[in-house]
Description:
Mean pLDDT: 88
Distance between the termini: 41 Å
Largest sheet: 7 strands, mixed
Bound molecules: biotin
Number of strands: 12
Amino acid sequence: xxxxxxxxxxxxxxxLEEGHFIDLDQVRQGxxxxxxxxxxxxxxxxxxxxxxxLEWDTVPSGFCLVAQSQTAGRGRQGRSWHSDxxxxxxxxxxxxxxxxxxxxxxxxxxxSLAVIRAFTLRGMAQGIGVKWPNDILxxxxxxxxxxxxxxxxxxxxxxxVIGIGLNLQPSLPTASNIxxxxxxxxxxxxxxxxxxLLLGTLLHELVRMLDEFSRDGFAPLITEWHEHCxxxxxxxxxxxxxxxxxxxxxxxxxxxxxxxxxxxxxEQVFHGGEISLRMESV
Length: 282
Ligand code: BTN
């Protein structure tokens, strides 16, 4: 990774101000051995880091955009995602996945695990867990989320845009966009390593995870995901926009990352939906 941020060609940079809220030397320290494979550009404000990487089709695999703030941050299922200038870590990575998009169903789950691995490396994993499909929780409250999108290009179909949003400090999101209690790292007494070092560590674990996923898919990661899953073997409700809510016991994930629920009608497999859980049970 070069010392100064690289601006890829053919991108309208005029309205974009480079930010100094990220120390690229510290990012490189966190990136370690994968530093030559990643290029990080910090910007003061964008609409959405995911949207920029989707639209900037000249930006290569390995390019990471980190924004101090987003004006139109996106969450799953069409929700918006609020990130605060000081309180959040908000970034997206473009990455070539060596398997067709039809086999990406477990990719967002693998990315959540990479976040858990990074927190573990930095000694920040106490009370942390994952909620299907791609929420990061701490003590049952949402700490962050993952949004994976496909970068459609006439030339190739293997580029994913992987967005991660984390609430680091208690200048809280306004919660209007988030349908569950929010946690931050520092309001739970977690000492934060330097934000840039954390970003580098997250990217290091993400790149290693993307290599694993490209090679083997999600199936070998099931056991690790189950270890961190906050609702495995617990009662859950699964909500859908236009279907009745499903109630049952979470029985784990399939090798493709779908959710298995034991219901009164037997075991059923779900590829979408929004879980709510009874917090006293996790
Ligand atoms: C969710 O939990 O709904 C997923 C939230 C993902 C938010 C991140 S922040 C960086 C990237 N840019 C976006 O617009 N969204 C993702």
